[in-house]
Amino acid sequence: MPADPLLLSAGQWLGVAGGVLALLTLVAFVARWGIRFRLVGITSFTVLLAFSCVAFAISYTPRVEIPGAVTVPVVFDNGTDLVVAVAPPDLAAASIPPTVEQVARNLRGNGRNTGSGQVTVRLRRIENLEPGLSRPVVLAEAIRNLKDGTVELRP
To answer: For the purposes of burial, counting CB atoms within 10 Å of the CB of 18, is it exposed (0-12), middle (13-18) or buried (19 or more)?
Structure first.
């Protein structure tokens, strides 16, 4: 998992600043400065920012980009085992399989309560039959196994 170097260095600098502020807060309590209680808040907030930056830098994973895929919005996600994304009307047929695979690979499994550990991802388009009447057409489907990260494409 690659860590974001900018956030790591920001976390380190905020940690150093938190340490300096902690020493300054101790001096303020010993010298009985009037600002000592404000320094407690400033110090604790700075230390919290430092820990947050480091934690986010370590846990960050960039989005997967597959060649030939188009970025599409997810229009339905039931939170367990079904995700539906909408394809633009001008999507080429060659872009359909990589697009549905990209949506499936970018799913995060945290919090999904699927018994089988699999999530179905569908790429659909709305087809107009006549004015005021339309129907959804599923262009492609992928099954993402959250346990091992594999993706199975279905036409």
So the answer is: buried
